[in-house]
Amino acid sequence: MKKYNIALSVFFMALAAATFEGTQQLTAMESGLGPGSWPKVLSGILFVLGVILLLQSLWEHDQAETQAAPFNIRSVEFRRVLLGAAILTGFCLLLKFFGFIIAAAFMVPAVMRLMAEKRPIVLVGTTIGVLAAIYLIFVIALHLPLPQGSIF
């Protein structure tokens, strides 16, 4: 597990650096917070967490490596990871063609079902709440348009 953690920490630090660099073109507002502020903060947090994971992995005892359970690609957990990746891929495709609201309206309950939530009222209520919060924060408060699809 140690080598996987080291590889993941390096990947996350590189992703954070690339994200931070990519946000340099976003406009800054005079008040200090703008469209590029939160991606910079989140990429900084991701970089720090990657460093922490790297340090923990390097200082980890070798005996913990032998006690770790083997990686099983036939396990239920691994299938859930693959299903989660499929849901995110579907979200990206829906986002491209139908826009954020419609794509998220399918993704949020799909992820909740993946995490074993079955109550319809919770699925619908959480989806509406999440979409309303995103709309209020980004469109109303920050004056940022949500991604529009090519069909709508």
Task: Please give a structural write-up.
This protein is an all-alpha fold. The chain has 2 domains: 1-68; 73-152, no CATH class. 72% of the residues lie in helices and 0% in strands. The chain has helices spanning 2-22, 37-59, 62-67, 76-98, 100-114, 120-141. Helix 1 (2-22) packs antiparallel against helix 2, helix 4 packs antiparallel against helix 5 (100-114) and helix 5 packs antiparallel against helix 6 (120-141). The radius of gyration is 19 Å and the shape is globular.
Strand content: under 5%
Average predicted local confidence, pLDDT: 86
In total, the number of domains comes to 2
Number of distinct beta strands: 0
SSE order and pairing:
Elements: H1 2-22, H2 37-59, H3 62-67, H4 76-98, H5 100-114, H6 120-141
Helix pairs in contact: 1-2, 4-5, 5-6
Describe what is shown at a glance:
72% of the residues lie in helices and 0% in strands. With 152 residues, the chain is an all-alpha fold. It folds into two domains: 1-68; 73-152, no CATH class.
List keywords for this structure.
0% strand, 152 residues, 72% helix, single chain, membrane, DUF1468 domain-containing protein, transmembrane, transmembrane helix, 2 domains, DUF1468, mainly alpha
